[in-house]
Design brief:
Elements lengths: L1 H21 L4 E6 L2 E6 H57 L2 H20 L7 H18 L3 H15 L5 H17 L3 H9 L3 H4 L2 H13 L3 H13 L7 H15 L4 H9 L3 H4 L2 H13 L4 H17 L6 H17 L6 H13 L4 H13 L3 H11 L6 H18 L2 H17 L1
Antiparallel strand pairs: 1-2
Helix pairs in contact: 2-3, 2-4, 3-4, 4-5, 4-6, 5-6, 6-7, 6-9, 7-9, 9-10, 10-11, 11-14, 14-15, 14-16, 15-16, 16-18, 17-18, 18-19, 19-20, 20-21
Length: about 425
């Protein structure tokens, strides 16, 4: 269709020229004393057209002639750029394939070509980024070869090139690699120093947070590690399956690092609400408060949410967690100077009545009755719980309590038998 239109247009132009030139009787007279020259108007127009075409072609030819050095220069630059790009691809390919010596040589080849171009007066707009990246790849290869001297030399040059304004984005990658190398060299303090130089936005990226978490755990900075793990969980840098375990272990480590009641309370307040609801964390906090001689009532209050969860949601706690919770409550009652609080007595009694078949709750209720000097009820509950107790520690304590009750009654035979069973439970545990 387009060709047909061109033909129509060409025919139209030919017809117009034929109509104009066919009947054109005009002449142009040139007076050049003492001569007179008469020329046809058609001839003059044709001559002028030919002169214009010749002049145009001549100017284009001269322009192309003078542009040859520029074309040659651009060709040389493109040739060098292609060679550098190929060498950079070789560096990456060899680095990923584990050929570290070849990768370093290829990276050094990129640097040599770029240096030659600069000396010849040709400067690339991205030369700083190219040099920084090449030095970084060479340093990575040297790190894999355990050549620390070469790594440091290339790293310093990469950091110097990345500090320029046109290569700021590359600087973040250089700092992250430096932090990773420090961790590989078991120098977490240096890793944290490199990470602290990152911009605020980069420092909150997943890769930076993972490096910070690892460095904080290696330096025993539990609070920093816990805060970093929270950010990773928020940004989904840790899987949903692994996140609770990591947070729980860090919270436990933070609580275990406290050596007096004030430190323990400060550590408890630094935990999130979700972390305080973790059974292991609450139990460890309560047990730690009892170990350092702190407020017993406060220790029991920390256990209250876990207790309510166990009572209202059967199966929410594992058997180990339930046993640890009951042991922590029993320890708190044992260390208290007076009788247990009425509120806790009511909670334990209601829980035992709601779940009459729960041997652990029967055991706790029986030990609580002993604190209240309800000897008969205590003996009844402990005796009922013993056949179904699975934990050796609770079984031993129950037999020891029955031995104390038998001794109080003056039943020496029952007392000896109870102590014998307690010893068997201890050896079994």
């Amino acid at each position: 269709m387009r060709a047909a239109l061109w033909f129509l247009a060409l025919f139209g132009v030919a017809v117009a020229i034929a109509l104009f030139a066919g009947n054109n009787q005009g002449t142009i007279t040139i007076f050049w004393p003492p001569y007179r020259v008469d020329l046809s108007l058609n001839l003059v127009l044709l001559t002028l057209t030919l002169l214009f075409v010749i002049l145009h072609v001549a100017l284009r030819a001269l322009s192309a002639l003078f542009a040859i050095p520029g074309h040659a220069r651009r060709w040389r630059i493109q040739h060098q750029e292609r060679a550098m790009h190929v060498a950079l691809l070789d560096t990456l390919s060899n680095l990923l394939a584990g050929r570290f010596i070849r990768a370093r040589k290829a990276a050094e080849g990129v640097l040599a070509r770029e240096t030659a171009m600069t000396r010849s007066g040709e400067t690339l707009a991205y030369s700083a980024r190219l040099r920084a990246l090449s030095h970084l790849l060479a340093a990575e290869s040297a790190q894999s070869l355990q050549d620390k001297a070469a790594r440091e030399a290339h790293f310093c040059q990469a950091l110097d090139q990345a500090s320029r304004r046109e290569a700021q984005e590359t600087r973040e990658g250089v700092l992250l690699r430096a932090a990773r190398w420090a961790l590989e060299d078991h120098d977490p303090q240096a890793a944290l120093q490199w990470l602290n130089q990152l911009p605020q936005g980069t420092a909150r990226r997943t890769v930076a947070l993972r490096l910070r978490l690892k460095a904080a755990r290696m330096t025993r900075q539990t609070l920093l590690a816990l805060e970093t793990a929270r950010l990773l969980t928020k940004h989904r840098g840790i899987s949903e399956v692994a996140a609770p375990g990591i947070l729980r272990s860090l919270a436990l480590e933070l609580l275990k690092s406290a050596y007096d009641p004030d430190q323990l309370q400060a550590a408890w307040h630094q935990l999130d609400a979700a972390e305080r609801l973790m059974p292991e964390v609450a139990i460890e906090a309560s047990a730690g408060m009892l170990r350092v001689g702190g407020d017993i009532e406060l220790a029991r209050n920390w256990l209250l949410p876990v207790w309510e969860r166990m009572v209202t949601q059967p199966g929410a706690l594992t058997e180990v967690q339930r046993i640890n919770l009951i042991t922590a409550l029993e320890s708190g009652f044992a260390l208290a100077t007076g009788a247990p609080e009425a509120a806790w007595l009511t909670r334990i009694e209601q829980a035992q009545m709601t779940h009459p078949g729960d041997a652990a709750l029967q055991y706790l209720a029986g030990m609580t009755c002993m604190r209240l000097q309800l000897w008969g009820k205590a003996q009844q509950l402990l005796t009922q719980s013993l056949p179904r107790l699975q934990d050796p520690l609770l079984e031993r304590n129950a037999w020891a309590a029955l031995a104390a009750l038998a001794e109080r009654r003056g039943d020496q035979a029952a007392c000896a038998e109870a102590w014998q069973n307690a010893a068997k439970a201890s050896s079994a545990g």
